[in-house]
Amino acid sequence: MLELDNVSTGYDDVQVLWDVSLRVEVGELVSLLGNNGAGKTTTLGAIMGILPLFGGDVRFRGESITEVSVQDRSGLGLTIAPEDDAVFPDMTVKGNLRVSAYGVDKEERRRRLERVYDLFPRLQERTGQYADTLSGGERQMLNIGSALMRDPDMLLIDEPSLGLAPMLADDILSEIENISNQGMTVLLVEQNVNKALSISDRAYVMEKGQIRLEGRAKDLMNDEKVRESYLGI
Ligand SMILES: Nc1ncnc2c1ncn2[C@@H]1O[C@H](COP(=O)(O)OP(=O)(O)OP(=O)(O)O)[C@@H](O)[C@H]1O
Ligand SMILES: [Mg+2]
Questions:
Q1: Which atom of ligand 1 is nearest to the CA of 38?
Q2: Angle at Cα 42 formed by Cα 40 and Cα 47, nearest 5°?
Q3: PANTHER family, alphabetically (predicted)?
Q4: Ligand 1 test: best mutation among 12, 33, 40, most atoms within 8 Å of CB?
Q5: Over 70: is that where the pLDDT of 221 sits?
Q6: What is the Cα gyration radius of the chain?
Q7: What's residue 166's pLDDT?
Q8: How many domains is the chain partitioned into structurally?
Q9: Which residue has the least CA distance to atom 13 on ligand 1?
Q10: Which of 80, 118, 128, 181 is most buried, taking the most CB atoms under 10 A from its CB?
């Protein structure tokens, strides 16, 4: 569904990614792992078109989208729940969700809202609450819920467990597993290697702007280098 072919990019003229190649098939949950500054968010920026490519190609459903604008990529069914969440703090939970489906007809918007509330009952309980009064975990649910309101075919999620207590991090990752089990294609960025691998089909490990390792999540969990460098075993 999504393929990156030798993608290089960076900020202004500072190169940060070097020949990054990866793919995500329809229905897969794939993790992009790596330490702080490895280039994970930058990779998502290249996929969403926020950063211009220095080289390489991004393909979605078999067609190059390298020349497609940020707005139009979203229209193709590619959506991100960003690292610095896209939540409007002075709007309610419901307001945030509705505004993410702006322009969508009422019936369809209601269906999407119900689906998000089914997935995250906590959000339904807090439907009238202002977003800036949500806990970190609830706010992350709202971030992902808002992305789902755009009814994507593929969802990119950037470090959903960042800053959350271990139990909340577990909750949010199992909710992502649920979303995946319902058929969504997901590219998940995480530093929480152990938990991410436990819910993923496959994974890529980045270091210094390059892909260092890739494989089936099960195999990576038993990989000596992954265990030493990322699992502390
Ligand atoms: N706006 C920017 N301008 C210049 N350099 C940047 C910018 N954003 C990120 N970088 C640099 O690009 C490199 C990769 O950063 P990136 O944010 O992609 O890492 P990351 O893997 O997402 O890390 P983290 O897990 O901390 O979010 C880092 O060296 C970072 O300092
Ligand atoms: Mg990041």
A1: 21
A2: 100
A3: HIGH-AFFINITY BRANCHED-CHAIN AMINO ACID TRANSPORT ATP-BINDING PROTEIN LIVF (PTHR43820)
A4: 40
A5: yes
A6: 17
A7: 87
A8: 2
A9: 37
A10: 80
Place of tokens 């467990």: 161
Q: Which of 42, 157, 190, 230 most suits a substitution to test ligand 1, by most atoms within 8 Å of the C-beta? A: 42
pLDDT tens-digit series, residues 30-44? 999 998 999 999 999
Average pLDDT over residues 187-210: 94
Over residues 107-160, the pLDDT tens digits come to 999 999 999 999 999 999 999 999 999 988 899 999 999 999 999 999 999 999
Q: Which ligand is nearest to the CA of 82?
A: 2
Work out the pLDDT band at 208, boundaries 50, 70, 90: very high
Ligand 1 atom 2: the closest Cα is on which residue? 11
- Report residues whose beta carbon is within 6 angstroms of any ligand 1 atom: 11, 16, 34, 36-42, 83, 191
Give the domain extent around 144: 86-151
Report which bound ligand comes closest to the CA of 206.
1
Residues 27 and 55 in one domain: yes
Find where tokens 């729940």 sit.
Answer: 81
Which among 151, 177, 196 is the end of a domain?
151
User: Going by CA atoms, what residue is nearest to atom 29 of ligand 1?
Assistant: 37
Shared domain check, 98 and 72:
no
**Together in a domain, 13 and 60:** yes
Question: Helix, strand, or coil here: 160?
Answer: coil
Q: Coil, helix or strand for 112?
A: helix
Residue 233 has pLDDT above 70, yes or no: no
- Based on the domain organization, do 71 and 101 belong to the same domain? no
